[in-house]
Amino acid sequence: MENDKQLKHISKFLSLVLRHKPETINIQLDENGWAEVDELIEKSNRKGVQFNRATLHHVVETNVKKRFAFNDSLDKIRASQGHSLQVELGYKNQKPPEILFHGTGEQSKQSILKKGLIRKARQHVHLSSDITTAKMVGQRHGKPFIFKVAALEMYNDNFAFFISENGVWLTDNVPSKYLRTE
Predict the structure, then answer these.
(1) Could you tell me the residue ranges of all domains in the chain?
(2) 101: enclosing H helix or E strand
(3) 145: which strand partners?
(4) Is the pTM of this model over 0.70?
(5) Among 88, 122, 92, 143, which Cα is nearest to 15's?
(6) In what order do the strands lie in the sheet with 68-70?
(7) Which tens digit of pLDDT belongs to each residue from 123-145?
(8) Between 3.90.380.10, 1.10.10.970, 3.40.50.720, 1.20.120.50, what CATH number should domain 4-79 receive?
(9) Fold annotation for 100-180
């Protein structure tokens, strides 16, 4: 089995290919974001990112953020969320908890308070059901700042919410009136 550094490299490469740039290895994702496992392995290996089916399964199973998922027959793989590509993940609108959390960097606080949370290049805004996860996300952007999102209020105002296979809550945007900073 590959070492941790190699596994992290493979995981990052899979994120690039399955979330943002499948053209990196010249594969096509279907409309739901699925890629054929055998083709992914073959074309990744040709591009110099070496792994086999066992390693791929290990990366999917051990990824702390559960970024990837296999279909039931294990012959297709996709990213669970975070795409900058248009894919239909097939998630159904679900009633969220009363409060969700969004972690960001302290330097983004004022801009977000003015504009709300917008998805930018991604398909959705990502929200966490727990403050610990939001804090870890925020730390990637410098000193973390956590917004509380009045998710149930948004839902009652006809905003759609989805939950990804790895437990990340998704919505199209969060207007600033639903953000709490206390």
Answers:
(1) 4-79, 100-180
(2) strand 100-105
(3) 104
(4) no
(5) 122
(6) 35-36, 76-79, 68-70
(7) 789 999 999 999 988 898 889 99
(8) 1.10.10.970
(9) ADP-ribosylation fold (3.20.170)
